[in-house]
Amino acid sequence: MIRIEQLTKQYGETTVLKIPEMDIPKGQIFGLVGNNGAGKTTLFSLLLDLIQATAGTVKIDDIPVHSSEDWKKKTAAFLDDSFLIGYLTPEEYFYFIGELRGVSKEEVDELLTGYTDFFNDEILNKNKYIRDLSKGNQKKVGVVATFIGEPELLILDEPFANLDPTTQIRLKELLSEKAKDANKTVMISSHDIQHVTEVCERIAVLEKGEIVKDLKTTSKTLRELETFFTK
Amino acid sequence: MNDQKKSMFLRLLQLQLKSYRRSSAFTSGVVTSIIYLYFMLCFVGIFTLLGFRSFYSIDEDMGVDPLQFINKYMVYGTSFWVVWRYFIQKMPVLNVKALLSLPVKENTIVHYALGQTTFSFFNISNAFFFVPFSLVLVNNGYPTSQVLSWHLAIIAIVFCTNYINILINDRNDVFYTVATLLILFAGLQYYDIFDISQHMGPVFDTFYNSPIYTLIPWMILILLYQSAFTHFKHRMYLDSGLQVVKKEAQNLQLGWLNRFGRTAIFVKNDIKLILRNKRSKMTIWVSIGSLFYGLLFFTDSSGGLYNAPVWKIFAGIIVTGGFLFTFGQYVPSWDSSYYPLMMSQNIVYREYLNAKWAMITIATMASTVLGSFYIIFGWDVYAAILTGAIYNIGVNGHLVLLSGAFIKSPIDLTTTTKPFGDKQAFNAKTLLLSLPKLFLPMILYFIGSLFGGEWVGYMTVVFTGLLGFFLKDKVFNWIEILYKVEKYKTLEAYKQTS
Q: Is the minimum CB–CB distance between A47 and chain B shorter than 8 Å?
């Protein structure tokens, strides 16, 4: 689903990201861990063509993201609050995303009923603008919006951050459910190695812009990652 | 203790200086800074000149006592200043939050926050007019001590408006009352029904005639400062004064727009954007304001300065273009806070641009219809307005979107403008691009009129407008490419705020 070739990103003299090659096959649920400044967000921004690579290419479903825009139909992402429109209510925001993705209001409503538990009665019909919601609730809105229109590729940056424990557990369940669908590729990043090992089939460790580990998740993975990050 | 308090105050002041030095006006490149400075100097220059000159022009041209004349209108000046400040002066809460949990005395913070407003542009700018005016008064034989007393009273009044503004901030009811009274009394005076300035003028005269009364505004000022102090101090908690006011979401029924297809998706969003954000709501007020701007040209109020027919075109552009210039000028910055979303969603630039263009066009047509009352000034006047509208839709609509590709200053929707407007207004490229919007039609008219008078002049402008309209697709292709090229720079620039 995602193919990365000779990808580098430099700011002046400093190289912030360098990935010679990486392949994420369709249906995989992929986790990215790393300390602050390791390049996780840079990588995600490159995948979404929000910044320009210094060299190399990213292809989503064989479409080079830089030269074509067709990948946008298949992809949904939530990186940070710049993916939210503060002056809309959550409902209006969901409908807006729905309209862009060709999903009718009724279909969006139907999809939303599936997330009643996840929203914990704090999101819908509250007559509040998104900008007035708490950080955690904003995140819920952003994450659920990416499910609209059944995109083939989901990219979520730090989806667990700012969520309360109950919601973290529900989100894990949700993502595992998505992973069952062989057509859905999910890519998440996190600071929390436990969450990632629970959800992802494959985990890559990013350090100073380079992939230093690329593991298939097993029962030993958590230990291995803990040892790695204990320096 | 006093010593410590003092040094704390100084430290806070240093913070302020830093924030000022690092503000965008001084860090966004040499050209921008120079242009910014130039406009600031122009502004100062105009006010200073006005201060020096107005004495003579009132004295000689109108034959009335300049001081009494100014005093007569002080009541309007003051209330206008209150309204104006309410609109654009920011509240001094900015850095307060970070200080709350630090070992700084609460009183120091409040004094500091209030003191900070003293140096506000709104206070200082008055001096540029009143100081030279007072100097001229003294120079012309008005007794120094009396002028000084009057001047001190004015200073007190200016600062009173400063603290009134703090007290009534976010009190829409007070604001609308003052604004309505202002308009009401201005109307009553205009139609010779009741002249409030006749009654209020003598009040201001008293400060000159009997200096002892100058104490009154100063006492009011002290009272206002104290109540602003308590007001502020009681609200120094995160859940009261420092909290951002949350409003209930308004329910807008815009479903009927759906028949316009994908364009409607963005148009619906833009309507919400305009109605729900403080900063963008200003565009409506400015649009209404510019609708009446033509009155300056077509009535005698300008003293015949704008009688030349070329200025009619200028008026036509402004009257119908208020929205175009205030909203269109800042596309795509309106969407700056969620531009990454727009760029990763299933959006084609063309649809996005078309929607913005539709907004501008609809608003321009609405202004044209609303501006029909200009017919009372004659058919040629309305022809100028129609011409302006056609040019606005056909040419200026493209031009504002084109300049949008180069405007890379994010807009913080939740705050109103700074006194000098947004710094993007001083972007050198935008400035260049705004010239043809206003002056090109005037030049076209002038050239046309050389060949066959007024009507050929109009037709030249209309024809250019229509040409632009029919070339829309071609122009949009080009604009689209520009937006794509500038995409990464724009995303990068929008990140650098808040």
A: no
